[in-house]
Amino acid sequence: MLPCRFQLLTLGSQHKLYDKTVRHPMAMKFPLASAFVKTFIKSWINQVEDCEVLEEVYESFSAALTHIEPQIGYKIYTFDGGSHYHATKETVAMCSKGTTGLRTWQACLALCQWATDNNHIFKHKKVLELGCGVGLLGCVISHLCDKITLTDYHNSVLKAAQHTLDVNSVSNGNVSVLDWSRSCVEDDNLDIVVAADVVFDPTIVPDLVKTIKNKLRYF
Ligand SMILES: C[S@@+](CC[C@H](N)C(=O)[O-])C[C@H]1O[C@@H](n2cnc3c(N)ncnc32)[C@H](O)[C@@H]1O
């Protein structure tokens, strides 16, 4: 047998990697998108093509191939080295059901990490999230603040965000419809407004700014 191209991927190491990824307890509880699993395992097989691939890896690969909804599944995130995990059900596609909100975007991950690293900012605060998408940021911040409202204007996105709060047992958060172009002034008494990756079209900026101003008028 030829030596592995990557020393780490001996059979023993593959077992450990398999248990920490494909068979991670969170991935067992919240099944990942099979399209994502397929890509991950393909690259795994490529890395160890010159030596033995763990049997279970092939089994997971064929299970991913036969899945009926390959583009949808859970993603598991952690921003504090594994003390807290957050599960979101997402699509792999950039745009689905006419919205970009059914997946988590890169800027959101950066803001989740920033919020975790600067958690004191959210302590005892009432927070509003605009354009929440599947709700990862709101879910992360819910652990740091007193109360958070996740808002969006797309019906499927609002359902996905509610699902995220439910599966992560978030009890101090709620989901509400808020369209920046129809924004009404409410007596929210908010402390902080957050939003990640919401300005992709410059024409919506005035509405977004108006909404932030309205929402923070008591600040
Ligand atoms: C690119 S996604 C970002 C989702 C999430 N914040 C993230 O970073 O993963 C943009 C989000 O903004 C929402 N959005 C766009 N225009 C909006 C508007 N006028 N009112 C409320 N939400 C809006 C979309 O529905 C979508 O969920």
Could you provide a short overview of the structure?
The chain is α/β, with parallel strands linked by helices and 219 residues long. It has helices at 11-20, 25-29, 34-47, 55-65, 106-117, 136-142, 155-167, 205-215, and strands spanning 72-77, 86-91, 126-130, 147-152, 173-177, 192-195. It has two domains: 7-70, no CATH class; 101-215, Rossmann fold, CATH 3.40.50.
Describe the overall structure.
This protein has eight helices and six strands, in the order ααααββαβαβαββα. With 219 residues, the protein is α/β, with parallel strands linked by helices. It folds into two domains: 7-70, no CATH class; 101-215, Vaccinia Virus protein VP39 (Rossmann fold). The strands form two sheets. Strands 5-4-3-6 form a four-stranded parallel β-sheet, covered by helices on one side. Strands 1-2 form a two-stranded antiparallel sheet. α6 (136-142) links the parallel β3 (126-130) and β4. α5 runs parallel beside α6. The mean pLDDT is 90. The structure holds S-adenosylmethionine. Residues 99-101, 104-105, 107-108, 131-133, 152-154, 157, 178-181, 196-198, 204, 207 line the site of S-adenosylmethionine.
